[in-house]
Write a structure and sequence with these properties.
There is one protein chain. This protein is of the alpha+beta class and 422 residues long. The protein has two domains: 6-163 and 219-308, BirA Bifunctional Protein, domain 2, CATH 3.30.930; 320-421, 3-Layer(aba) Sandwich (Rossmann fold). It has 15 helices and 16 strands. The chain has helices at 9-26, 39-45, 51-56, 75-84, 129-146, 164-176, 184-192, 203-210, 221-236, 281-284, 299-308, 328-343, 357-366, 377-382, 403-414, and strands at residues 29-30, 36-38, 59-61, 67-70, 94-103, 115-124, 151-157, 242-243, 255-263, 273-277, 292-298, 320-325, 347-350, 371-375, 384-389, 395-399. Strand 12 (320-325), helix 12 and strand 13 (347-350) form a beta-alpha-beta unit. Helix 1 runs antiparallel to helix 5 and helix 5 packs parallel to helix 9.
Length: 422
């Protein structure tokens, strides 16, 4: 787990604002769910045989003996909220998004955090492949809006509970002759969760998986029609994708569509995000069958890729002001002026103590201030303030009563607005 320090916050703010913006474009509404949920929500929804349930969940009992879990992923809580609050009574599909912390007991390695933050969006209540295509296009649009490039969308269909058993049987037959060559994890997967055999990251297991039977060869007519329609929709939207017969995702609730966004750089740490359809999940939670599809991305991993690709995050659009004062009367005036500036929604910082003007200007530079307002004995006598542009170094005297209006006018000009728009 790690702290997110002030210098890192602009990147986090940037990613979250882009996430909210793309969700607004597509009509998705924000939802916050608790960090702590009943552990059964995840053991029923995700099921055993996955690393999340078997190895990574933080599970504990409260004082009443109820078994609880720190939220390991976002989809199951969204579905629980959908049921608990009767969102199924709204026009379907219900479109929701979330940004929040998730917790998994990951193996220590670069890019893996036991507390990480996810951005995800879900569309619940419609089984149309058009919705799958919307989700995938939306994921692509979000990543492009961040400034990320050089990624590819990998796509597969893993069928449904009608056709998947036949595929799983064929997969077991294929792997039976390789059992002695599999890594310890894959030997366990062969018994408990055969689909995950295709997802192993060990090189030799990957070589075995490459020649394994393909899910698409076993799809029932409905699943095949859904997958073909999805591909047609993506082509209409001009959203490029690669068919990847080994793609299965790491959660058991997925049905039919699965997809991942993979960076092309070999040094990048795993997928930028992924998702798919989960038409059986809500039924597994005890409700009537309800279709759903979604996407999620780890914010830490997105930020890591933004840094790797040297994406420049735009600066904050508003100017900031630093108040430098010399002398007791000037400090009192500075206190009053700071309050007036903040009341005018101009971000303002002040110097504390009795520092020299040189020290205060150095502090203003370190804070990244756009302007410094200097108040000293001479300024107090003439009821003026020295306004210093920190970028150009230019200074001009401004009547004290006109400081707010002058800064507002400056802000309007920087934004390309007329002063009356501010």
């Amino acid at each position: 787990m790690s702290d997110i320090l002030p210098p890192e916050q602009p990147l986090w703010k940037y990613v979250k604002e882009k996430a909210a913006s793309v969700c607004d474009l597509y009509g998705y509404q924000p939802l916050n769910t608790p960090v702590i949920e009943d552990a059964g929500l995840f053991t029923h929804a995700v099921a055993g045989g996955t690393d999340i349930v078997d190895k990574e969940m933080y599970i504990f009992k409260d004082r009443g003996g109820q078994e609880l879990a720190l939220r390991p992923e976002g989809t199951a809580p969204v579905c629980r909220a959908y049921l608990e609050h009767g969102l199924f009574n709204l026009p379907q599909p219900v479109k929701l998004y979330y940004i929040g912390a998730s917790f998994r007991y990951e193996r220590p390695q670069a890019g893996r955090y036991r507390q990480h933050h996810q951005f995800g969006f879900e569309a619940i209540g419609d089984a149309s492949p058009f919705l799958d295509a919307e989700i995938i296009e939306m994921a692509q649009r979000f990543l492009l809006s961040l400034g990320l490039r050089d990624f590819s969308i990998h796509l597969n269909s893993i069928g449904c509970r009608t056709c998947r058993p036949g595929y799983v049987s064929a997969l077991k037959r294929y792997y039976a002759s390789f059992e002695g060559e599999l890594c310890p994890d894959c030997k366990a997967r062969l018994e408990r969760n055969p689909l995950r055999l295709l997802d192993c990251k060990k090189r030799h297991c990957q070589e075995i998986a490459e020649a394994a039977p393909r899910t698409t060869a076993f799809l029932c007519p409905d699943c095949l029609a859904h997958f073909e329609s999805l591909q047609e929709c993506l082509n209409i939207l001009k959203t490029p994708f690669l068919l990847n017969h080994r793609l299965v995702r790491g959660l058991d609730y997925y049905t039919r569509t699965v997809f991942e966004v993979q960076p092309q750089e070999e040094t990048s740490q795993g997928a930028l995000g992924g998702g798919g359809r989960y038409d059986d999940l809500i039924e597994a939670l005890g409700a009537k069958p309800t279709a759903g599809v979604g996407f999620a991305a780890g914010i830490e991993r997105l930020i890591s890729n933004l840094r790797e690709q040297q994406v420049n995050v735009p600066p904050s659009p508003h100017i900031t002001v630093f108040l430098a004062s010399l002398g007791a009367e000037a400090r009192k005036e500075s206190l009053k002026l700071a309050s007036v500036l903040r009341g005018a929604e101009i971000a303002t910082m002040e110097s504390a103590g009795n520092k020299s003007l040189k020290s205060q200007l150095k502090q203003a530079n370190a804070r990244g201030s756009s302007y410094t307002v200097i108040l000293g004995e001479e300024e107090m006598k003439s009821r003026t303030a020295m306004l210093r542009d920190m970028k150009s170094g230019e200074q001009r005297l401004v009547p004290l009563s006109q400081v707010v209006a002058t800064l507002r006018q400056t802000r309007a000009l920087e934004r390309g607005q007329s002063p009356g728009d501010t």
